[in-house]
Write a structure and sequence with these properties.
- The structure is a single chain.
- By secondary structure, the protein is α+β, with helices and mostly antiparallel strands.
- Helices cover 52% and strands 12% of the residues.
- A five-stranded mixed sheet has the order 3-4-2-1-5. It has a four-stranded antiparallel sheet with strand order 7-8-9-14, sandwiched between helices. Strands 6-10-11 form a three-stranded antiparallel sheet, covered by helices on one side.
- The N and C termini lie far apart (95 Å).
- Mean pLDDT is 89; it is low at 501-506 and 543-551.
- The chain has helices at 5-16, 32-36, 78-91, 100-110, 118-125, 130-157, 161-181, 193-200, 203-214, 222-238, 282-290, 297-308, 313-321, 379-408, 412-433, 442-445, 457-468, 474-495, 507-527, 535-541, and strands at residues 27-31, 45-51, 62-66, 69-77, 113-116, 251-255, 259-264, 267-272, 276-280, 325-329, 333-334, 359-360, 363-364, 372-374.
- α3 crosses α4 (100-110), α14 (379-408) packs antiparallel against α18 and α14 (379-408) packs antiparallel against α19 (507-527).
- The chain is elongated and about 105 Å long.
- This is Polymerase nucleotidyl transferase domain-containing protein.
């Protein structure tokens, strides 16, 4: 060790003097890199204080600075350590589910250096033989190495050669850690792997590992990346790793749990875990529609290229990265690669879409044909805002129809009220298109336009004029109707509702409106989103059929 026994005891005594007195008959061990025989002058000094009872001691360490060294003191009772080893043994049957921190804590104790209470230290270390722990650690590392190699093979198939090479290197580390763990070198921290390999006494393994780790395949060269993967696979096989071949046909594309698909018009929306909405551009949507669960990755790529007319690799990789699909190994379950002592594996989320306006009656706005855009709204608010957008346009059409009838009958007060209703409904649609939900009250809408982009200022000005305009003559009525229609056109052009059916003009337009609304209602019902009015549920769910039929 880099610190003498006397130096360790002095550090321990000074550290304990700064803490509350521990229970009687406690033990202390030195853990970590120094105890392993590694370490350097900057390494922490890690003490574990063990009590003989069954107390529930805190996990958080005490951090001290003693004689120029950073010292950590953790505490555990004998009962807690026994539970720790029992849990590890239970999890060991499924290495992919084994908790990394638990494995690390057990390893540090088993390979610790006793300083006080040697009998208690021997007692807790006897709870798991080191040979058994070596097997558990080796299996854990082998599982992760296997997953990394499968992940690299998938990336290579998707055309992401440089990413594949990076995962080859990650697999190398974990393959060699598995081999070393089987020989008793179980310390988890990868940075000490060169010293572990020196200590293992196999220079041939060490040298070949370094050769492959330092190899630099030409960037963007799939053939060089494939050659590197082949070499890494051969090395891993020689060290006893099983369950991986260079055959991409062993990879299949599968459904991901909690992911549903919803189409409105031509736009594909993919909802993840009922919380997040991804809107797909035209090419991304074509690739998505081509997917068949259970099909091999090469066959999936062929079908997707035919459907989208473009290389689908990057899009499929993004679907995989975002957790919208999963890849599986035939007979080996889901491919889930991870790195040691790093962020846990799992789907990532891209930055939210910045498209404005965000929504249209035909679906969410997207940034381009290859877009897989994450909506900056929770899924239920996304659905509620879009249903409000569709319903506001129904109300606009109804108000224009009412205004036309009132003008014919010279019902000037009715005309004024219905014109204002049309303006407010149009503004509700504009706010909804920008993702505002819940909506401000109608009388506040024109005053809350500061919530919307500055480009909507002309709409605010014209809305204010229309809301203040009196209608008390045929001339003013006709002018108001013309200006209102121009205002509605402006708002709909801005809000992506320019193709909204003139739903009160004919039965066909009404049917088209209901079909459009029904698409959004299905999403809203799935997410239990708020409806604009309760009657909309019955109307849209029934496609406009009359609930009360004559006998």
């Amino acid at each position: 060790m880099i610190l003498t026994e006397d130096r360790l005891h002095r550090l321990l005594d000074k550290s304990l003097a700064e803490l509350p007195p521990p229970a009687a008959d406690f033990a202390v061990v030195l853990e970590g890199s120094i105890a392993e025989g590694f370490g350097n002058p900057s390494s922490d000094v890690d003490f574990l204080l063990i009590t003989p009872g069954d107390e529930e001691l805190p996990t958080m360490p005490s951090l001290l600075f003693v004689d120029g060294r950073r010292v950590e003191i953790r505490t555990r009772s004998r009962r807690q350590l026994a539970e720790q080893f029992r849990t590890l043994e239970k999890q060991a049957a499924r290495p992919g589910r084994l908790d990394e921190d638990l494995l690390n804590r057990c390893q540090r104790l088993l390979h610790s250096h006793p300083l006080r209470g040697h009998a208690l230290v021997d007692e807790v270390k006897a709870l798991m033989p080191r040979e058994r722990f070596s097997r558990i650690a080796a299996d854990w590392w082998a599982h992760r190495a296997r997953q990394c190699l499968r992940h690299a093979l998938a990336l290579l198939g998707l055309g992401l050669a440089d990413e594949a090479v990076d995962w080859n290197r990650a697999a190398l580390v974990q393959t060699v850690k598995a081999w070393a763990a089987g020989r008793g070198e179980t310390y988890l921290e990868p940075k000490w792997l060169p010293l572990q390999l020196d200590r293992a006494g196999r220079p041939d393994v060490r040298d070949r590992y370094e050769e492959l780790r330092c190899a630099t395949p030409a960037p963007g060269d799939p053939d060089a990346a494939r050659a590197h993967l082949t070499a890494c696979l051969a090395f891993a096989t020689g060290l006893g790793l099983t369950g991986v071949t260079a055959d991409p046909g062993r990879l299949t594309v599968e459904r991901a749990a909690g992911v549903t698909t919803w189409q409105t018009g031509e736009r594909i929306h993919v909802i993840r875990r009922r919380r997040e909405v991804f809107a797909l551009g035209d090419r991304a949507g074509a690739v998505w529609r081509s997917l068949v669960p259970g099909r091999s990755l090469p066959d999936t790529l062929t079908a997707a290229e035919h459907a989208a007319g473009t290389d689908p690799g990057p899009l499929l990789a993004a679907f995989w990265r975002y957790g919208l699909i999963r890849l599986a190994w035939k007979g080996g379950g889901t491919v889930t690669a991870s790195l040691p002592l790093a962020a846990p594996p799992g789907p990532v989320a891209p930055p939210p879409s910045t498209a404005q306006p965000l929504l249209s009656v035909a679906g969410a706005a997207v940034s381009g044909p290859d877009a897989i855009d994450l909506m900056p709204l929770p899924a239920d608010r996304f659905a509620a805002a879009t249903m409000a957008l569709v319903w506001s346009n129904v109300v606009v059409e109804n108000a224009v129809e009412d205004l036309t009838g009132a003008l014919r009958q010279h019902q000037w007060p009715v005309a004024e009220l219905t014109a204002r209703r049309a303006v407010h409904a149009a503004l509700r649609g504009l706010f909804s298109a920008h993702g505002v939900h819940p909506l401000p009250a109608d009388c506040d809408l024109v005053h809350r336009m500061d919530l919307l982009p500055a480009a909507t200022e002309p709409i605010r000005v014209r809305a204010g004029e229309l809301l203040r305009r009196p209608i008390d003559s045929p001339e003013r009525g006709e002018t108001a109707l013309a200006d209102l229609r121009a205002f509605i056109t402006l708002v709909r052009d801005t809000a992506g509702a320019d193709a909204f059916p003139l739903c009160f003009d004919s039965a066909d337009d009404w049917r088209a409106t209901l079909e459009l609304g029904h698409d959004w209602l299905r999403i809203g019902a799935h997410l239990n989103a708020q409806l604009p009015i309760e009657e909309a549920r019955d109307l849209l769910a029934g496609h406009g059929t009359r609930p009360h039929q004559s006998r």
